[in-house]
């Protein structure tokens, strides 16, 4: 982008010189120089601003979950999703989610979600999934988590959100205040597949754009890996936009013109942290996948 701007500025200056030669001016046309200078300055500043890709615009901390109280996750903030869900939580996932400390515990200032290979109530793996549904729901904000990912094929951890109006089996199916997925919308702040430790992706799903047709982008690390160091994954979300970032890099912007359907993101959402094992996206673990594997979450913070 900077190169493009410099090119535009250079062309402006060349054109200025040509103009001088053509009209053989004896007196320098000060207003022309001034105009080109102003134009160049605007272009240059405009490009510099764009090149910075300023990630952080929301800076007032309004919620923080630092995971500094040992034991089970704070019950005032978190619910457990238990079991195998409907059709492996909609994705043919292979794990049984439990609330046991072997699968989910807060200690050392971290939430640790651990996937294990074990026979448990008919499943071959166990793990955990928590949601803030009904306890912390948010419309707009900068929502971020500092996470260290696991390693191995078949592991699929995520920090994501669902529209609070999602219709669930516990609720009356024809409750007019709820709608089925994907009409409720889904914002995947970060997803990661354990066989590719330098890659993560951010995605939105909604009516007409879900599953394979979702609006998604990858972010690839140039140095380091997601499984042996912590990184910050977040969104800055406001009316008619969602920006996805990793650390200080903004890599995905979504607005209503990017989605081939209704924009369903101007409403409250709740948060979800989980680690799936197997399922449609990652495929099953293989012999090289070492268990147990842990997703480490240092904090979640929300800013306005
Ligand atoms: Ca912490």
Give the tally of β-strands.
18
Low-confidence stretches: 1-53
How much helical structure, as a percent, in the residues? 10-25%
| Mean pLDDT value | 86
Q: Tell me, what is the CATH class of the largest domain? A: Mainly Beta
Task: Throw out a few tags for this protein.
37% strand, 2 domains, alpha+beta, 10-stranded mixed sheet, Jelly Rolls, disordered N terminus, 8-stranded antiparallel sheet, 3 helices, 304 residues, binds calcium ion, 16% helix
Account of the protein in words:
The structure is a single chain. The protein is α+β, with helices and mostly antiparallel strands. The chain has 2 domains: 1-54; 56-303, Jelly Rolls (Sandwich), CATH 2.60.120. The protein is 16% helix and 37% strand. It is built from 3 helices and 18 strands. The protein has helices at 2-23, 30-52, 88-92; strands at 61-65, 79-80, 95-97, 104-107, 110-120, 123-127, 129-131, 137-138, 141-148, 155-163, 186-191, 199-205, 215-220, 231-238, 241-246, 249-254, 269-277, 293-303. The strands form 2 sheets. Strands 1, 3, 4, 5, 6, 9, 14, 15, 16 and 18 form a 10-stranded mixed β-sheet that branches. Strands 2, 7, 8, 10, 11, 12, 13 and 17 form an 8-stranded antiparallel β-sheet that branches. A hairpin with a 7-residue loop joins strand 11 (186-191) and strand 12. Helix 1 packs antiparallel against helix 2 (30-52). The longest helix has 23 residues, at 30-52. The radius of gyration is 24 Å and the shape is globular.
